[in-house]
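Standup notes
- DV: blocked on the single-chain target, sequence here:
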Amino acid sequence: MAKLLYSATMSLDGYIAGPDGDMSWLSEHLVAENPTATRLLASTGAILAGNNTFGGDDPNRGTEKEGAFGGAYHGPTFVLTHRPPDEPATSVTFVSDLHSAVAQAKQAAGDKYVNILGANVAMQCLKAELLDEILVFVAPVLLGGGVRMFHTDDQRVRLTPLTGETAHWYRVEY
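- DV (later): unblocked, structure below
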């Protein structure tokens, strides 16, 4: 069965997007080969994103690398929103209920990961005790403001490092 994984690149001061959702800062940090990200792409069976993330800034907008995983992801995407567009994009499913979105994404992912994109959806999954793992890529930059990777509202969350994985890949313990 699929697992829910929240993965993101975070600035050293804890932000995944700059002010107003700006992602341009990320471009210079996506140029090097990243074996963990390559493995993650191969093991991702579906994406679950929030509407702000789905329609937000893309550091590769207008290039062949636009989209998830630098444009390399070509699979089912589920967007959690109460405002679906009148004409949804191909291979994108808009869902208004968290549990339904998770169930549909897990079914689509099979035995691979459902990769969560966006802090809001990840925190909803964490609060509902649905999130299985967290993978953090840390970029050597201080943004000073923007969208925090985590905002747990005083919820203490125990994480256990996954054996044999990269330094910041954790199992969520409930």
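- Follow-up: Strands lie at 3-11, 15-17, 44-50, 77-80, 92-95, 113-117, 133-139, 147-148, 158-161, 169-173.
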